[in-house]
Amino acid sequence: MADLRKVKDEASDAAAKSNWKKAASLYSTLEQHERNGLWPLKLGECLRKLGHKAEAIKALTRAVDIYAKADLLLKAIAVCKIIIEIDPHHTKTQQALAAFHASRSGTQAGQAPVAPVATAGQPTCAQAWAPAAHVRGGDTAIWRPVGPLAGAREVSLPRLAPLVPAPLANEPAPALLREFNLAAMLPGARQSDEVPAVGDGAALEIPIDSDEPAFLVREGQGLARPAKPRGRRTMARAVLPKTPFFSVLSVEQLCAAIERVQLIQLEAGQVLFARGDAGDDLYVVASGEIAVLVPQEVARLQEGDIFGEIALLAHQPRNATTRATVPSQVLALDRTLVHYLISGSPEFLKVLLRSLRDRLIATLAHTSPLFASFSDLERAALTARFRFLEVDRNVRVVEQGKKATGLYVLLAGEAAAVIDGAPVAHFQAGDVFGEISLIAGHPATATVVTLERSFVLQLPRSDFNEVIMTHPQVLEYLGSLADDRMQAIGKLKLL
Questions:
Q1: pLDDT tens profile 181-229
Q2: Which structural domains are found in the chain, ordered by start?
Q3: Is-contact 471 373, C-beta < 8 A?
């Protein structure tokens, strides 16, 4: 048997020197000895460089098969996109992948479908699958998958309709969150007990946490600890646990996602986007590692991690720079695709909202002196305590003369601080308020009212007090912040 370690080193060296013929031979040897999707993937890349497109597709198709059967869906999708880059008409592999995933995830034939979608001008999944002998109704049929993953059970697919066009380039895209009524989409939403309704306006607490066992568990009255080890101890592993992402989609949605998603391949050190850039896509890591910098590094994202969702969902500039630390692959989802997936899957929406909350608090925890004394695990515990509120326009989140019910972070939207009817401050995404009343234990000196429909994170008073008790540095910082804000308010009042 060949010394596989030596073969791997020689293959890597040959590829680095663009000796594609030698590298292809070595990767072929590795594929014969190890069932690892990486080797047919590398072989396919070499054959593509040599101009052998048909052979490259065969090798890449074998990689898809291995990744799919190992439940490495993101890697399988990424390889599917490489195949489509080589031959845009080669759709059988990705369609069989969608059916195979459905059969592995328990999707039942005949399951009620969501509104289907297909990309205009491209072959749809249903058009390329072979219909089974039994066809039901006029809108839904049973389809038998074909291609390298044939053998997956039959699934129910509806006839597909076109995607809703994305906004024109000269039309500003609204915050994606504002296009949805979250309370109507997510069961269990309820009116906040701590933010009173005003007329038709209210603050609704939206349940976004999974029904699955929490990554973090409470231990007595203290802060949380990890439920079990999660491997590499980075901020991403501690605060941003794996999300199901594509696995929560129906087979119809997954098929549309595979067709529409874009593959981006990054070299080590390459920047995907920079802080301050406009953003209309979100990303998921298919392979490799992505560093998040604001400007210091606050996270290392790995396979399955979502990023870029803040700019898309809340319509803000990018709040961090992302850079590949090693050769990496990311899948990009544009706003039209994300809109479609949210429309048909409340669970997908929950995944994104959890990611949005966790990312914002993780960034705040690493960049604000407020949480400078926290360990990674304590920051993770803090994140889980924040509630997600959907707040209508003209709702008083904090009311002058009454004690603040919590510490608030404005996620998306706008709000104003008002004293005796006169505006004294303007709050935008990322701003914190409610701290003066919490620290002093006295009624709030100003009213904070939403100027538009907004999304707010709330750390309830009881949780805030517990954090203060265990971290006196937080109280010291908030006291300084409160003094600065009171001085600013006093100057405004003198005017």
A1: 787 888 888 888 888 888 778 899 988 876 543 333 322 333 333 333 3
A2: 4-110+123-130+145-154 (1.25.40), 189-222+368-495 (2.60.120.10), 223-367 (2.60.120.10)
A3: yes
